[in-house]
């Protein structure tokens, strides 16, 4: 390690949002050494949220979603090459083309990929898609523009719901299948899932909840429909599998890091943790791949698949990579995410899944315009707005100050709470969902109790 942390060699593995913002921040923080950014895709970094919205609607081309550079990071870009391994002792990143890159400090920002349909032969049918990359979006948008009679979407999380919304806006019939009790239930709980279900059905979606797709059917190599666990069938021309994401950790199998299905564990300063729970000094983590502790949520490990978190965490990681210990800072940003679907603007702050109760503080379910406030053990932990985004900042302040739940009458606009008493937030076990959460608490959930088993003798 160089004596001056602003010198040496830094390698960033992952050339998406977190990787780009980290590279820019490293230069802004005064890093002067060689900087290499490795990315599996051939394209320079681009924005992913428009892929399930504007691109599918045909209002934006996939090649117009590139991320603007805030400054030139003066980096060597190794695009179109995959990282295949990490040797932390030799401090080298191994690449698929046989080369290896030496580093003094490493940032891992390899993000996620779409979870595929689990049956390879069915997944290979013409007309079966996943949506993660710009190439995925381009192919799917082309097929939607051709006017299919019906699209089947498997999974009613944010991505699946946005795809269904785009289909209906294009005038295409759509069936949505969700294993859980309602759309968005893993992220927002049962109360708002009922609103989301009403929104979809009001826009003509054939929404089927508490059901699984048992098989995709094909004819002459083309997708033609699906069988459901309740014995029913649907005929469709296209199928979009929206079963959540898989974190790209396989290349780290022999690296000795605490990497698993929820990502790579790190401390609040973005330093990676090894398999024995020891914090490393030269390997950092940022973006969707990271699991990090947050004091507002009982120091449970948070895994987030959100745009804002990727940016904030990348900037903290970059700062800490080039700063001596006493000047390092923690990543304590309160999660914020948003979605536009079926004419509704849904925004969330905090972690709705970290809750046991919820109240409707403003607006109403009937008006489809509201603020839902979530609490856990008498403390506000999240708020979700539907077409009332101007109040989000107010509730973020309440979350950050650990304000009492439920909020008092007139906490926001001088009006009494819409629901007089809190009701259960009804957050399901994520294992019972098909869509996968975009925010995951990867410690023990609030409704569970830790059982300690002691051996006899």
TrEMBL record:
Domain Reductase C-terminal: 337-407
SUPFAM superfamilies (alphabetical): FAD/NAD(P)-binding domain, FAD/NAD-linked reductases, dimerisation (C-terminal) domain
Cellular component GO terms held in the UniProt record: cytoplasm
Named cofactor requirement(s): FAD
Source organism, top-level taxon: Bacteria
Molecular function in Gene Ontology: oxidoreductase activity, acting on NAD(P)H
Record's protein name: FAD-dependent oxidoreductase
